Amino acid sequence: MKLNRIIETCIYSENLNESKIFYGDLLGLKLHSEVKNRHLFFRCGNNMFMIFNPKETLKTNLTVPTHGSIGPGHVAFAVQETELQKWRDYLESNGIPIEKQIDWPEGGESIYFRDPSNNSIEFTTSATWQTK
User: Rounded to an integer, what distance in angstroms lies between the CA atom of residue 55 and that of residue 87?
Assistant: First the structure.
């Protein structure tokens, strides 16, 4: 037995309206579904990127176990090597400062910035983890 890939990942935000604009309009992720004030589910390639309101997901839910996190999280999105600088320029031109850029010792590059809920967002190239 082995785990093959991550199907979904999530971060938390108490302001889903801001998150919807940031990830949908600014970053271009396609909204899959939404429950007002509870969650946003976006498609990212063949996988799901979810944003939950922690105050709502900590409440009892008969469908899935309660879950939530307080404080900023982190997620890394894969980008093409040839597009990383374009993303950097695009983010900066939209008032999103780059917090850090890293050239990794084994190859790969990453840029880090913050979303409106202060989550750490990374755009990284496939060479960072030798993924495709």
Answer: 32
53 and 103 share one domain = no
In a domain, 106, yes or no: yes
Q: 27-64: per-residue pLDDT in tens?
A: 999 999 999 999 999 999 999 999 999 988 888 776 77
Residue 82 near residue 88 (C-beta atoms within 8 A): no
* pTM score of the predicted model: 0.92
| Contact of 14 with 54, CB cutoff 8 Å | yes
13 HSE (CA, 13 A, CB side): 27
> Around Cβ 79, how many Cβ atoms within 10 Å?
19
Helix ranges, 1-132 (H): 16-20, 54-57, 84-93
Task: Using DSSP bridges, classify how beta strands 47-52 and 8-12 pair: parallel, antiparallel or unpaired.
Answer: parallel
Residue carrying the six token digits 């979303």: 115
**Do 55 and 76 have their domain in common?**
no
